[in-house]
Design a protein that fits this description.
The complex is a heterodimer of chains A (190) and B (262).
Chain A lengths: L1 H12 L6 H20 L2 H17 L10 H19 L12 H4 L12 H7 L2 H10 L3 H12 L4 H8 L3 H25 L1
Helix pairs in contact in A: 2-3, 2-4, 2-8, 3-4, 7-10, 8-10, 9-10
Chain B lengths: L5 H8 L5 H9 L1 H16 L12 H9 L13 H8 L1 H5 L2 H28 L13 H25 L9 H24 L3 H18 L7 H14 L1 H10 L1 H12 L3
Classes of the chains: A mainly alpha (190), B mainly alpha (262).
């Protein structure tokens, strides 16, 4: 697969634009999955997929032959998703990277989230979990998604997010801490 | 006993912490309970399954972006590479094909050379308009003058420091003076012809001295040498010759310009 990807990239750089279609077809689903998990939104995930492949195309000349295209485009997609949720003004729980003192504010249930009784009644526990995810900062949410759902190592997360490994570890820890507090709230009310 | 922090428990959960934390869990029931609680909570945070995509999802994505992507410019390769890439068979064929191609190239080069020779014969180049050749004589005169002045200077130095009683010195001085006389005469004629009165006068003085050395009646004896030394010193002939000799480079350049020699 790697050799085919490299041959395809050489073809694209030689002027065969259509060859890039094969790479898009091959990697779109995986990119959509991670984009959806980070953004939590289907429309945003679709946008991220397109944005990632377009950015990848424009940066294709910087692609190093020893790299794996799947990993490379995956990283671009994560950056696109992080950018998107950082820009998303509608999500009022999205904040900056935050700090330990400010983290305590994140445990407050957002106004738009349904209360526990309603969720239990309607069986929408998943929606509560989703709202808990929205309480995280973009960086925490992305780091947690990559570690917990995509099974990336802390080093990989640090590389993808272009931060220090210790910062990646801290982001994951803060995310877990906040999510547990949210879920504890849910358990108490039920 | 120090209990594990929440951060360390999270690290342990994600297998990022070392075996030390795991050993602590075996020994500390409180941390073990904390860890179980953490496991239960985090296990609740299941990975979100994304909505399903159609079978041709990749094609859909490509169709939506392909129109916005520019075509990469085809890199311009050297001519020989383009020829070789088009003639891929060339690299896979036996040696004789390569040799035949090389022979063809050599034949083409030879034909081009022969055609060039023929063309030159049929279309001779127009004669190059040239300036009249400068008189080489000027150059030769300068060279001769320079050499003549050198030799004259050496002779005058010998004469100046000569011991008048040294009879062995008389013959070499006379012979050298005789050989210089002819050259001095020629240089003087040229100097006069070139309108150089300073040089002409100096060579006249030199001529008198050389003549005295070469053709002294009764031979070049001690009195004659002393007399010639006095005459040379009185006229400052040695100094004059040295000055002329030092001016030779400038004089030579002047002659070059005058003669048109680049």
């Amino acid at each position: 697969m790697g050799k085919n990807d490299h041959a395809t990239i050489r073809a694209v750089l030689s002027g065969d634009k259509e060859a890039y279609g094969a790479l898009v077809t091959q990697h779109s689903r995986g990119i959509f999955r991670v984009a959806y998990r980070i953004t939590g939104n289907e429309a945003d995930a679709e946008e991220v997929v397109q944005d990632a492949f377009m950015r990848g195309y424009r940066k294709l000349e910087s692609f190093e032959s020893r790299s794996n295209f799947g990993t490379w485009i995956y990283r671009i997609a994560v950056r696109c998703a992080l950018d998107r949720i950082s820009r998303r003004g509608g999500d009022k729980n999205d904040r900056g990277h935050g700090n330990a003192e400010a983290d305590s504010e994140a445990v407050q249930v957002p106004d738009r989230a349904p209360n526990p009784e309603q969720m239990l009644l309607s069986g929408e526990i998943g929606a509560f979990r989703e709202s808990a995810m929205h309480s995280l900062t973009p960086l925490e949410r992305t780091a947690f998604t990559l570690r917990h759902m995509e099974d990336c190592s802390m080093e990989e997360i640090a590389v993808v997010l272009e931060i220090a490994p210790n910062a990646a570890k801290q982001a994951v820890y803060r995310a877990v801490h906040k999510l547990r507090q949210r879920l504890a709230l849910l358990k108490v009310r039920t | 006993m120090n209990h594990l922090s929440q951060e360390e428990l999270v690290e342990l959960y994600y297998s990022e912490d070392g075996p030390e934390a795991a050993r602590h869990m075996d020994a500390c029931s409180e941390c073990a309970r904390e860890y179980e609680a953490l496991q239960a909570d985090v296990a609740d945070m299941k990975a979100v399954d994304p909505p399903s995509r159609p079978q041709n999802y990749g094609e859909q994505v490509w169709n939506s972006i392909s129109g916005q992507l520019p075509v990469y410019a085809r890199p311009r390769r050297p001519l020989f590479q383009r020829i070789l890439s088009k003639q891929a068979w060339f690299r896979q064929r036996p040696l004789w094909i390569g040799l035949s191609v090389a022979a063809t190239c050599a034949l083409l080069v030879a034909a081009a050379f022969y055609a060039g020779r023929l063309w030159e014969h049929r279309n001779p180049l127009p004669p190059i308009a040239s300036h009249p050749a400068p008189p080489a004589q000027q150059h030769v005169v300068v060279v001769v003058l320079s050499d003549h002045l050198d030799r004259s200077e050496r002779l005058l130095v010998q004469l100046k420091h000569a011991n008048a009683d040294d009879t062995q010195l008389a013959t070499p001085l006379r012979d050298e003076a005789r050989s210089l006389l002819a050259a001095n005469r020629k240089c003087r004629q040229e100097a006069e012809a070139n309108g150089d009165p300073e040089l002409t006068m100096a060579l006249d003085h030199l001529n008198e001295l050389l003549n005295g050395l070469a053709n002294q009646p009764g031979g070049l004896n001690a009195d004659a040498i002393s007399k010639l030394q006095a005459e040379m010193n009185k006229d400052g002939l040695l100094f004059e010759v040295r000055v002329l000799r030092s001016r030779i480079p400038n004089r030579q350049a002047a002659v070059h310009l005058k003669g048109g020699i680049a």
